[in-house]
Amino acid sequence: VTKTFPETARAEAEALLRCVARARSRGWCEGTGGNFSVVVSRKPLQLLVTPSGADKADLRTQDLLLVGADAAPAEGWSGRPSDEAPLHVAVAERTGAGAIVHTHSVWGTLLGERFGASGGFRIRGYEMLKGLAGVRSHEQEIFVPVVANSQDMAELGAAVRRELAARAGLAGLLIAGHGLYAWGAGVAEARRHLEIFEFLFEVVGRRASLEPFTG
Ligand SMILES: [Zn+2]
Questions:
Q1: DSSP symbol at 26
Q2: The whole model's pTM is what?
Q3: Contact 197, 111 (CB under 8 A)
Q4: Residue 51 C-alpha to ligand 1 middle, in angstroms?
Q5: From its phi and psi, is residue 26 left (phi > 0), alpha (psi between -120 and 50) or beta?
Q6: Cβ of 90: how many Cβ atoms within 10 Å?
Q7: 186 CA distance to ligand 1 centroid (A)?
Q8: Distance 180 CA to ligand 1 centre (A)
């Protein structure tokens, strides 16, 4: 069986791999942590997604797998997509995102753990917030939802769908003790949102060590 790489998606696939390399270089997806996808068709929904268990250090475009709305490989494609592909599908369906990125960073892991019980946390007062779509001022407050982690992808997918249905306009959310999902209209925006969230998570995480700061 020969898979046919969708040539129209090559530029986006290459952009996605540059995003993976960037995230890897920042230590946000060590080992086999994290997974990434780009939507190549809306009707029917199809995404190119990183393979299961792949080290992000040496991924090539031909390693990406085409999956459908069932998160299974499309006809003619073999291989095992990321176990978290159902979450990428959930985000693509619920938000209309064109690219979805998922990292396992230190600060995302810690903040998800810290705020898992309360369901999320707020961030305001930082200039870098303006890197998120729709945020015009550092005074604008954002809410970062935290969804409980699970190894049951159907259960986790349902929890993510509920959160997305309840809150319009999100650019990302955390899974407790696990990591960040961020997305955007295309790879460029998803990557920008990833970098903004990871920056803000590190800021609010490190801030705790300065409190009380009376300088
Ligand atoms: Zn993960």
A1: T
A2: 0.95
A3: no
A4: 12
A5: alpha
A6: 25
A7: 20
A8: 8
